[in-house]
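Before drawing any conclusions, I looked closely at one protein's amino acid sequence and its backbone structure tokens, quoted below without any editing.
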Amino acid sequence: MDTMELLLKTDIPNMPEKEYKLKRLSSVCGGPVIFKLRGLPYSRATELTKSQKDDLNVHILLAGTIEPNLKDPELLAKFNAVTPAELVKKLLLPGEIEDLSRCVEKLSGYRDVTIEEIKKK
């Protein structure tokens, strides 16, 4: 079967999702603090790259986070944050923000080898 036939008979799945436990916050909170992340479609990744020159990692993380709901008014109030971006900066260390942002990027197909060369026989 050739590539065209394979593509025509396939439904593209939803963006990949994974869960990541934050070690420091889990220790501080006394239970597992888990972020459920999802990859971003091309249009959203491009939009963020063009529009968010400052705090790009924070906005990639916000766009890719399914859980916890970082826009929840109760959570924002608890940490005295006006915006979800401000909450992320208060809740997480810079390295944690970068690590989680990179996880979203990997789920989106970046920072990973996604192709392989076909060698002629």
Helices lie at 3-8, 23-29, 42-51, 56-64, 73-78, 84-91, 94-107. The radius of gyration is 18 Å.
